[in-house]
Structures are given as structure tokens and as C-alpha cells.
Amino acid sequence: MLSRMFRTHGAIGLGLLVPLLSWGVALARSQPEPAADSDGQRIEDLVVACHICANEGVMDSFGHLSVRSAKNPERFFMSRALAPAQVTVADIMEFDMAGNPVDPQGRRANGERFIHSEIYKARPDVQAVIHSHSPVVMPFGIAGVSLKPVTAQAGFLPLDTPLFEIREAWGTAEERGMLVRDSTLAKALAQKLGKAPVVLMRGHGHCVVADSIRRATIRAVYVEMNARVLQSALQLSKNVTYLDEKEIAYNATENFDLERPWDNLKRRLPEASKR
Amino acid sequence: MLSRMFRTHGAIGLGLLVPLLSWGVALARSQPEPAADSDGQRIEDLVVACHICANEGVMDSFGHLSVRSAKNPERFFMSRALAPAQVTVADIMEFDMAGNPVDPQGRRANGERFIHSEIYKARPDVQAVIHSHSPVVMPFGIAGVSLKPVTAQAGFLPLDTPLFEIREAWGTAEERGMLVRDSTLAKALAQKLGKAPVVLMRGHGHCVVADSIRRATIRAVYVEMNARVLQSALQLSKNVTYLDEKEIAYNATENFDLERPWDNLKRRLPEASKR
Amino acid sequence: MLSRMFRTHGAIGLGLLVPLLSWGVALARSQPEPAADSDGQRIEDLVVACHICANEGVMDSFGHLSVRSAKNPERFFMSRALAPAQVTVADIMEFDMAGNPVDPQGRRANGERFIHSEIYKARPDVQAVIHSHSPVVMPFGIAGVSLKPVTAQAGFLPLDTPLFEIREAWGTAEERGMLVRDSTLAKALAQKLGKAPVVLMRGHGHCVVADSIRRATIRAVYVEMNARVLQSALQLSKNVTYLDEKEIAYNATENFDLERPWDNLKRRLPEASKR
Amino acid sequence: MLSRMFRTHGAIGLGLLVPLLSWGVALARSQPEPAADSDGQRIEDLVVACHICANEGVMDSFGHLSVRSAKNPERFFMSRALAPAQVTVADIMEFDMAGNPVDPQGRRANGERFIHSEIYKARPDVQAVIHSHSPVVMPFGIAGVSLKPVTAQAGFLPLDTPLFEIREAWGTAEERGMLVRDSTLAKALAQKLGKAPVVLMRGHGHCVVADSIRRATIRAVYVEMNARVLQSALQLSKNVTYLDEKEIAYNATENFDLERPWDNLKRRLPEASKR
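ok -> C-alpha cells follow
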């Protein structure tokens, strides 16, 4: 059903697409909602998450978000190579655990899709992965300064956030670059992530994972906020008070209300993204 | 009358709410204004204050604002658990001094509502409380650097702004977190606030209080401004000139024109918030 | 003619004002433009300058701009006490060199209007005065760090920008505050300004002067930019290269194209301000 | 054909221009696209690049962008003296390698057009030049701190970005300024640029060059991002990890997808710029 929808959209021009999508929205209103955690719902959330991350400055023209399939945990959904702000349902592709698109239909996949497949393989608990080049998080990896939690809202962070140095993964290779463009590099990244919710990538960006695309989105937003606050605090004094073990343990027990920031960040989207 | 309005709005869907509110506005124009300091006026101001604080970056998806009842000083009004930018009159609930909602009608209250009830109990002069997670104020508490007044517009600040360390309130508890989720913690916070207009909360945010919701809003905006300016000044030199006792004493005697910034900040609201 | 226009506008409600102004605009299009440097043109520019300074972050809800009368150099024009973003032609009042409004018509004047009158008295070359509370300029006065020119666009700044410390003006007074609310304090400020284009006011803001309201506006915008750039440069290194005497002397000889930034900043105004 | 279009547009008022341009857009849709790398396409891209650079904060009211002619490599196109945000096709002028406008039609050329002509002469590989006064890049030249690449997206930067000190070009001249207003100064700037993609200009701004106007635009945006990230990193620690030789070499071999950010940045333009 989904792949049929993609094929149809792939065949028509962009001019036709917008009215069709509007019609889809109108239809959705008069029809039953997608099941609470169906792939349809996950893909719908993924598109909103792309727009939120772009709107909140988590994403620039690059970076990508994915969600695992609810039906088949060996599959995940991610947009074709496209700026997150521009992603629509028609741009979502399905991938297997080798990072291969199941039915590309001529659409170009992100070169760094292996980040997602390797994390899904290593972490069965993870349902969503966000890879960002956030300019407020990146300085920490570059300066070798720990991105520790200093704000209650980022209490999901561990005492220390792991940092991936791609030079270690490349070892003594004659040639080496910055992008995580194959499974070997991605496996090293997933290993560095370990059981953490976030891994920094020196000079490149970071990844955020969670048990839903909504939670990953909210986490990505609060990783930014924590980075901003920590940057300012460290400029005021080197004697900063971080959250301690007890505070982090307690945070894990709190029933954090995801829907509140999700609804608010959705509301903040420009009109064009809400259609 | 008010609680009846809530009940009606609670029973109808969101789709109906917006036209009804517009109709309310149209009606308000042809009818007499609410009395200068009635509960109706305070609630109307509270909703505008929510939108202003969100629009000026004082509030993110969390944080909350309240106003004491003009009719019954043992009661106060605050929105249900909802991002401040999204609050409408229909979301305002009434609370007693134990922090219990008087007539919840199934609406979920903010977990940290005790911050408000305990401050109202401790400070009969306070008519409004704003609790924010502002990312420009938070670094001061985290870095243990005093948020002192450096700008004439924040001359309402004392020589030193008190800082609440929740670890002290928890003492040697086995488990402890960051949120002020019961009366005991909130009482300790109110005690730290003392007679000040602002209290910082380490790693969490801060509270601003005043004798009206309008003044609390303007204060919240200028606490942000003072924090921004002080952060920059301290990055230029450690030898900063703070306002001194005389300047603060004089500031207290000046008839600060509240309506000017209030009108301007209201004007800056996005169109959707003005309806 | 002008004062008659004010009287008429003063007598009608705000609801009537907007259509009248639109009509005024329509009329202006079919009628001859105001003379190149008439008071009508100066007032029109003053209103645009208010909106630009608000839109570019030079002004918050306070701060004020004025222009000297072309017809009578012993008079100047400034809005009533109102946020600059909200100023319309109907809000402009006329003042004499004692800082008294010529025909207030019940409108409240800015408490700090003496800043303007004293500068106009001390500096016959000055045709416009802007007083701002800019949060990016203020840190320099507070930190006691010189706001020196580091960018070609701010080459109008002298080797050192004077800093006004209001405590010196108050001397050993029992009571003293931060605001420049009378002629005595304002005279001390004008004296500190001397022949400079800008004077910083510790913990309060700064003033920019020029030979036209357009030039004062562009200067105000580039004082901000210079402050931002210098703040960042000083955070990178204490070994900063400032413009030197020759570069400043040369800058004074260049025919800086005012219309280019003026037009662009006007274009950037929100639609509502352009009517 | 192009110069005729300019003449026509030059002769008509701005009121007529907008509908004509809209009509041009409508026409363009029903007509064949301009050839892939024709001068028509380059000029169209140049106008979009002007708007993108303004919208992304690379450009203020000054600064300018140019593209070499595809037909005649001894010519280049650049707007008349106008803020980049306001540039339309009708504002584009043609210049020769001496920096002289071929057919000015009364339009005023940028005083610093020699920057462009001298770079085109010295660098046959360069097809586009962007000169900006970016306030986030400028601090590096002023502080004498190297703008080195720290982010994968700015991996096109060399190990060190050259810095132009105009005082060296002026030597012992009696008078000297900051602007590059003749061929002699511009030649010295082009020499400092050498084979690099970027040259910083102390206290003035910087230039970005590339083999297309699209690539120059994307580079300009990522030079900003790299400057922002490096500024923050250096505030966290002096022990920063820069991209190394291998990473830069590898970056040069990667087929960086230009269309993705170009499309996204185009989408971000305000509606008025898209007509």
C-alpha cells in the first residue's frame, strides 16, 4: 500500500503533488486515523519530525531522520537525499538492515544511511535515529569538552556523552574522510554510541536515538538547549554544576510528557509545512 | 460564570473553539470592558502574558504563569499542562492554596503547580508568578555566578538574586530529582525567594513574581535582557560595574511605565495569538 | 499646518486613524512629494527611523529618536512616550530647547527628552539624536571596555567612544538613579559626547547623533554591528587590530552611500509598518 | 538580447516592473528553460544567490556577488550598487576585465567592483565571486585568528585561510582607507587569495570564489557556519581539533551535492523574493 503510494507520487510532477497531498489530508480527516503505532503513523510522524528539526535549527540542508518499521523491525524508513524541511510522505523510502533501499524507484538515498542501519542492528530498543550537523552541539566535540547534562530537561543525557573520533575508525588508512559512508565506519559509530541516547561526532555533528520518533525529536531539541546553556555557563565559570547520578536516575523514572513539546513544536511550523 | 464558560468550552471540540473565541472577541468589543481588576481581566491578561513570554523566548514548551484571584486571594489561576504559546481562556484552571485544582473537568494540571501555591502563601504581596526555563538565565545558576543588575531596566533586581539549590531541599534523600513537584520542595523554594522579585533554580530555570501579571511579564523580559547583557559584559571583563544600592533604591521610587512595554510586546505577537 | 494635523488626529480615535493614514498615503502618491528637507519630510523619515531601529534590534520598548526642525533650529520633533515600533506621524510632538513640548495636546512626553534638547543646544551640527538601550552595545560601558572601530562600516567612530558615568554627574548626592531625567544630567551627558558621533551610557544604553535622521539610523545599525564583531573578536584574542587614525581620517572623506542601507532597511520592515 | 532587456527595464518604472517580472516567470514556465550554462541561467542564479546570501545573513545592505560570462570569459555580471536583497535581473550590469561597465545606462556600479575583475583575471578557474561583510567571519581577521576548517561541511577550506591586510597594500602612503576601490588594491587582494577558495579582509569582510555561483553561495553559507562553530569551540577550549590534510584531501574528492542546499536555501527565501 505504502510502496504503491510512492510509485504513484514518483510518476507525477511536483505541480500535481501538492493538491494530491491536500486531498490526502482532507481524506484523512473524514477517514479513521492510522492505528496508534502503525507504519503509516510512524511515517507521518517522521515527516513532521523532519520539519520540526529544520524549524528549530537542529537540521540544516543536510542531516537525516529515520524511524524503524513497526511491522518489520528489520526495516526502517528515511527520506531520499533531501533537505529535511522539504520532505513529504512521497519522499520516504524503505531500507533494510544492510542500508539498502528496498524499492528505490530512482530516488537517491542518503550517502550516510549506514549510520541508521548499524544503529538499528546494534540497538533493538531504538525505534528512531536523528543525525544532525547542529552548530551549537558541534563545538563540544571539536573542543574535546564533554557535553554533560546541566538542565533538568536534558536529564536523559548520561554523566558523559560519548564522542566518536572517525580517525580512530579509519586507523592508519592512506586516505580518510569525515563522512560515515559505509557499514564499517557506521558500525564503529554504533559501538561508540553504546547504550547512550546521544553520540557526538567530532567535526561532523551528532546522533540522537530514542524509542519513538517523537521522543528522538524532543531529545534532539533539548540536546541543543543543553549545549547552548552549557556553552554559556562554561563562559561564565569553569566551576559548573552538572546533574549528578541521582538526578539522572530520578529523571529516568519521571513520566516526561512528550505530547506537550511535540504539539507546541508542531504548532511553530510555518504554514506551508502543516498542509 | 467563569467556571461555566470553562465547562462549555471543555465539552466542545477544538474545531468549534476558534470561531467561538472570535465571536467572544466581537462580543467583547460591543460590550462593556471587564472591570479594571476583575478576575476576568486578570485571566485575559494571563493568556496574553503566556503568549508574550513564549514569543519573547522566556518560555519554551514547558514553564507556566499564574495570577492570584482578585475576588478570593486564597485562589489562583493557571493554565492546564500546556505550552504557554497554546494557552487560551478555556485552558485556565482555578487552584487553591494547597495546589489542588478546584474544578479540573478532566484537565491535567502542571506537576509543578506547588511552586505557585507556596509562593502565594508566603508572599501576600505577590499577585503573579512566572516559572521559566530560560536558556539565557539558567547559565548563571549553573555556573554559580550572581545574576546582579547591570542595566537600568532591570533595576528592580536586588544587589544579589537568590539561587535555589534543590539538593539542599532534598537533603540526604536516597532518591532526588530536579523538579519542584510537591509542597515541601516548593516551600523551600519560596523560602529562598524571600522578599526578592526573582529566584534562580540551579539547572532548572527561575521564577519571577510581581504585584500584577503585567509587571511580572515585563520583569521576566528584562531579567532575560539583564542576563544577556551581563553574560556579554563578563566575557569582556571581570571588572563589571553593577547597579549599586543607591541606584536600586532610586529605581524603586520611579513610576515605571508598564503599559508601554506591555502594549509593544502584545503588538509583537503573531496574528494567530491576537484573536 | 503640522500642529493642526496633530490636533485633528489627537481628537479622533485609533480606529479612525488607520484608514485616515492610508488615505493620507494614497493622497501623498497623487500629490507632490514633500520638499527635500522640509519638516514634513523629516517627520516622515523620523517615523520610518523609529520602525527601522525597532526592527533591527536597536530599540526595545523604550528608547527614542528625534530630529531637529528644518524651519526652526530651536525646535525638534520626537514621538510621545511610546515604543518606537508603534510610532506614527500622529504621535510626533514638537519640543523647544528646554525640553518642553510646544503643544502637548494631552500626550505624555518621554521623561528623558532632555537628552535631546541638551545635545541639540551643545551641537549645532547635529540634526538627529537616537537614544537606545541596545543589549549588544551596553556590555562595553558596563565592562569598561572601549567601543573602538574594528569594521570599515563603523569607520565614523573615533579612536575611542566616550563613556558617560552618571555617578560622576550626580556627584555626592544623597539619592541618585540611572535615568537622564533633567537638564542638568543631560548637559553632563552632552558634554561627555563632545564632538563624537556616539556616547555610551554605563548600564543604560547609548546615544548616536548625525547630520540627518537617515544617517543617525544607519550609524546606529553599524554601531551595533561593530559592537557584535568587536565582542566576538575580543573573545578570540585580546590582540585585536582596530582601525587606526589614517583609516578613520580616510573614512571621513568617503561619500558613504546612505540611501542604499536606508532603502534596504525600509524594505525589511514588516508590512504593517510600511503603510 | 540581455542588454536590450536591461534597456527596456531601465526605461520603465518600478511599478511596471513587478507585473512584467511575474509575466516573465509565467512565460518561463511555458517556454523552454534557459540552456544549462547560458548567461541567462547564470544571471538568474546570480539574482537568487543575492537573495539567499541576504536571507542567510551572509550579506547586509552592502557586499556584492558576481558571475563570469559563459559566452565571454573576459566579462562578468554584477548588480548595480544595491543591497543584494533588492537585486532583480534588471539591476544586473556587464563588466569588462578592467572593472568598467560595458553599458551602464546611468546605473551606478559598485565602488569595489575591481575586487571581482582582478580575481577573474588572476584565477581563470573562478566563475563566481562573493564579497561579504559577514559579522561572524570578520572577527577572525580582526583578532588575527586563523579561520581553519573544523566542520566536514567546510572541508573545502585549506589548512589556513589567507588574510588580506590592506595596510600592506597601501604601504607608506600618506592617506589610506579600508575599501578596495581600485585595481591596484584589488590586485594585491587577488594575490593574497592565491589558489584558495576564501580570503579574509581584516576589518572589512571576506571573499569566496568557486567554479559556479551556486557553489560559491553554498560555500559562503558554510564559511559562516564554520566560523560560528570555531568561535564557540575556541571559547570552550584552545585545544581544538581542526580537519587535517588527509580529511581535506578526501573532501576534495567527494561529489558534494550542491543542489540539495541550493534548493533548500531557495525555499527559505521570503515569498517576495521568489517571484
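Chain C touches chain B through 30 residues (CB under 8 Å).
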